[in-house]
Amino acid sequence: MSDPQNSPENPLGRDPHVLLRVISKFLIPLIALFAFYVQFHGDYGPGGGFQAGVILAASVILYALVFGLTEAKRAFPPRLIRYGMTLGVLLYGGTGVVNFILGGEFLNYSNLAHDASHGQHYGILAVELGVLVTVTTVMIAIFYAFGSRQPETSDEDW
Amino acid sequence: MSFLDLVPDWLLIHGPAFLMALPLIMAAVTAILPNKRVAWTSTFIVTAILTLTAFAIAIYNAEVGTTIYKMGGWAPPHGISLVIDALSAPLVLLIALMGFITVIYAMPATVAEIKPNKRAPFYAAFLLCIAGLLGMVVSGDAFNVFVFLEVSSISTYVLVAMGAARDRRALSAAYNYLILGSIGATFYVIGVGFLYMETGTLNMADMARILADLDGGSRVAKVAFGFIVIGLGLKLAMFPLHAWLPGAYAYAPTPVTVFLASTATKAALYLLLRFTFFVFDPSYTYVADVLMFVLVGLGVVGMVFASLQAIFQTDVRRMLAFSSVAQVGYMLLGIGIATTASVAAGYLHLLNHAIIKGGLFLALGAMWYRFGITRTEDFQGLGKTMPLTMGAFTVLGLSLIGIPFTAGFVSKLNLVYAAADEGWWWAVGIIMLTSILALIYIGRVLLAAYFQSPPEIKGVVVARNEAPLSMLLPMWGLAIASIIIGIDASAIVDASTRAAELLLGTG
Amino acid sequence: MFEWFSHFNYVVVIILMMTGLYTVFASRNLIKKLAGLSVFQTSVFLLYITIGKVNGGQPPILVKDKSYGTDDDGQALLDGVVQVAAGNESYILPGPGSDVLYSNPLPHVLILTAIVVGVATLSIGLALTVRIREVYGTIEEDEIESADFVYNLEGTAD
Predict the structure, then answer these.
(1) Do A117 and C123 touch (CB under 8 A)?
(2) Which domains, ranges and CATH numbers included, belong to chain C?
(3) In a mutagenesis test of the B interface, which of C10, C29, C124 is the best target, namely the one with the most B β-carbons within 10 Å?
């Protein structure tokens, strides 16, 4: 989507996307905030890494849909997304390896803190963080991959 | 044994989790490595470590017996357990070894077949496939098996589709494989769901105990068994459900075909063995009926029809793919007869066939690499232009037919003995018939290679152009292994017998 | 006939499952096959989740117990009331023989995994469809087969 036609003679008249842009500027941070809410409340209610990751990715995808793929790629560069995928998997696997180094089986969180229940708490937080990062970056990467295949529709064709 | 003294203790104890976690983590790392040399080196190191670990675990298992590893410290049945027993240890070693051999072979092959910017993700997907297969085989929890089954299947769909750079039919082959493979995995999940409803647990040993207490269970367990057999049958290319296999084997990149042909269907067969004899028991009437009519029936029909179809193929890769479907029929026949000897023979054929088919596809890949050969007519004069490669192909081809002193002969002989013990002479006859059919389709290729002169291109006879060393070593390694097994099969027959006794002794 | 009401969930599952499978087999369009596959997988999710529901069960979260206290010896007054280590609160332990019934959380965990697997499969299927469209120019199965017919006759890729 090219830059909206906000010419000085006609500030709001010819731009067909002003409603979308204003509302999504308002909503995208709220969606991201909700994603983090879901992430941290996975312990106490429905939620957790996968759901939060998808919601966070949805906020980025909404940004890309409204403001254009090039803008989105400037804000969230594809290289960073690729590294993020690896980082997420390493967070999860790394937690397992750390548990195993501290004694005990692979992914046995009990040894991470002074007693078992705190250890489990920290372990779950760490792996859910890994899942969040992986799912967000994978969803954004899928969107970039599909979205880059076709040229974007210009405003006149809408 | 002295080899075990060299291996650190933690590796033997945490071996199953290590086998699963190392390729998974390294796959994520390999995907972002800069260029293909570094990616190949990391894959090579990972598969070498996996093979050594699998070897150590197999020897440790032979000494110590069944080991159960509690994942995350939670005891089964509430936690996920990883089990290494006589059934899974040889298969773990097979998967790790074939992964290592494929990576050695893959160095020149991926240069020829995969675009440069896709090579690091290719190796990452390959490591994910190995991780999925290893996880499938060591897992002792039915749903964990599904997770790793899908990890390996999804990475396989991606790997097969990467053959599109070479041959565009790989895309629709990968799509067909995706649809059928997902249906198979979903059927498996439905079966596990019904089992969970019946037994209340997901741990396979616990399920076996509860089903034995219920003496076979109600109709829910019967339905579960049906769904699981069909779901796994789609994955292991049981006769009418094999439609994805020829396309996937023929059009995938050559290293992928080598790896798939030797491991993917074998892991699904392992799962079928595990569910049929360990979780369910052949003493339940519905299991015995399915074994008799479905597994034996479809196995036998598959043997004959797939061999007949193989004879009429012009493309050598499709011919070998149909031959794989026929060989799976042998294994299903062995499982279906359901005696210790026959299950041991089926398991032995599983291991042998992996070696033979892997080697055949290695040789075929080397021939494609040098000359672009895919059809039977193109084989003319290969005995003179690529003598070493053709030699390996010949040895492995004779082993596929079942000539004495080769691995194929040992497993077919054991299967014939097992069938004859039960008085199933018609099965013996069909085994002989399909061996003759194999002779026809392999013999056609060998005749063209040895008894025709090399073709002339623009009036110049094609010169000798042997495959590179990194391709020759793996294929001759497998060919020599098949001859060694043919001469002295005691180690591998022992392993198969132990596996069969584990399955049928407790049942 | 009465089972159709009490086993309503299974009826719905079977209807969805067969619809999905039929769509996969009978469609000639690649996207429709993927849609059928999704419907088929969704029916399996329904199967798992509906069997986890216990009549009269509450979410599987420990109920904080305010009304029952401890007697002079420190023993709980009601069977099934436990002191959790991390604090001074008492919780009613749910389960058989207790006042509190809870729904089974395990199927939800299994289905979360299965949903993620389904999403991954769908995204790869769609990526393959996009590539097939780029290479063949069509996503109808019969047109793809006829385009490959020449290849298959000769058995060669060139």
Answers:
(1) no
(2) 1-53+104-152 (1.10.287.3510), 58-102 (no CATH)
(3) C124
